[in-house]
Design a protein that fits this description.
Layout: E1 2-5, H1 13-22, E2 27-31, H2 38-42, E3 46-49, H3 55-62, E4 65-71, H4 80-97, E5 102-108, H5 123-131, E6 136-142, E7 144-145, H6 153-158, E8 161-164, E9 172-175, H7 177-188, E10 196-201, E11 206-207, H8 209-220, E12 225-228, H9 231-240, H10 245-260, H11 279-296
Parallel strand pairs: 1-2, 1-4, 2-3, 4-5, 5-6, 6-10, 7-9, 8-12
Antiparallel strand pairs: 9-11
Helix pairs in contact: 1-7, 3-4, 4-5, 8-11, 9-10
Length: 297
């Protein structure tokens, strides 16, 4: 019996597949493009070529599976929220048809509030789709990805600034995607949990943006300052960077939900939700090389 991963080529799915294979687990991956996952196949993963939107592909992958890891891909279309929910419903139907006993869903802080949280709005119906058909479902409600700072590389390199609409005193959990992959592997290979549960993935500590800026100052070796801007300024900036209007609107809604407290974690921080990689470690190993490259160009 295998563990099925629906997004094996992303910065969470790929390390997750590698961790599971390294632990001796049988892994089935779904991908439209075999060439993008050929290394994972060489490492032992079974490939089912096709789209997660396709019922036949899902059925082929889930036949005989013991567990599914489901990650809704990033938003790439204006109807993303509806699309993600519909695709999850179809996957859930295949989970039920094939008697898959365990599902781990990558979700987010704020998912509990549903509509009005931008792209996160999709995740409550995704969670519910799998809970409706599988006896054992864990929703990993992850905090703010440290990797999101990679979107700020130009501003960090040229001005030493981070721009956001979040109040400077607002704290929120920041987590490295590598730690999310590790937590997912732990949950998928742990047979002791049962039922439906929501599990936070919160990084080592909650931070404010000014605290994050101070950490980045040390890690990058140059001053970094947090600049709070209005939501409309943020929307205009995203459009100016080339984001389509619908995507800028979606992220603006999410940042508004952060200001309103609707993206606060529902799950309290605990030993189980706390993960090890610090923002300083992430900045030194991942962010700094990219910032330095932009500054040198």
């Amino acid at each position: 019996m295998s563990i099925v991963i629906n997004t094996p080529n992303g910065n969470i799915g790929r390390p997750l597949v590698q961790k599971l294979l390294a632990s001796g687990r049988k892994v089935t991956i779904i991908s439209r493009n075999p060439e993008k996952v050929s290394d994972l196949v060489k490492q032992g993963a079974k490939l089912v070529q096709g789209s997660i939107e396709d019922k036949a592909t899902l059925d082929a992958a889930l036949e005989g599976a013991e567990a599914l890891f489901w990650l809704s891909p990033p938003p790439t279309r204006p109807d993303f929220v509806t699309w993600a929910a519909n695709v999850a419903q179809q996957a859930a139907a295949s989970v039920k048809a094939h008697g898959v006993k365990r599902v781990v869903v990558l979700s987010s802080v704020g998912a509990q509030n549903g509509p009005g949280t931008g792209p996160v709005s999709a995740l409550k119906p995704v969670e519910e789709a799998f809970k409706a058909v599988s006896p054992n479902v864990t929703s990993l409600r992850a905090g703010f990805f440290m990797e999101n700072f990679l979107r700020d590389v130009q501003a960090l390199a040229k001005a030493g600034h981070i721009y956001n609409a979040t109040a400077p005193e607002k704290t929120f959990p920041m987590v490295a995607v590598a730690d999310i992959a590790t937590k997912a592997a732990e949950v998928l290979t742990d047979a002791s949990w049962t039922g439906h549960r929501n599990l936070g993935v919160h990084g080592p500590q909650d931070l404010t943006y000014p605290e994050a800026a101070a950490i980045l100052t040390q890690a990058l070796g140059r001053p970094v300052k947090y600049m709070q801007v209005g939501l409309e300024d943020l929307r205009g900036s995203m459009k100016g960077m080339g984001l389509p209007a619908w995507m800028a609107d979606a992220f603006t809604e999410m940042y508004g939900a952060i200001k309103e407290g609707r993206m606060d974690p529902a799950e309290p921080r605990s030993k189980e939700t706390t993960t090890p990689t610090t923002l300083a470690q992430f900045a030194a190993t991942v962010l700094k090389p990219v910032v330095d490259q932009v500054r040198a160009s």
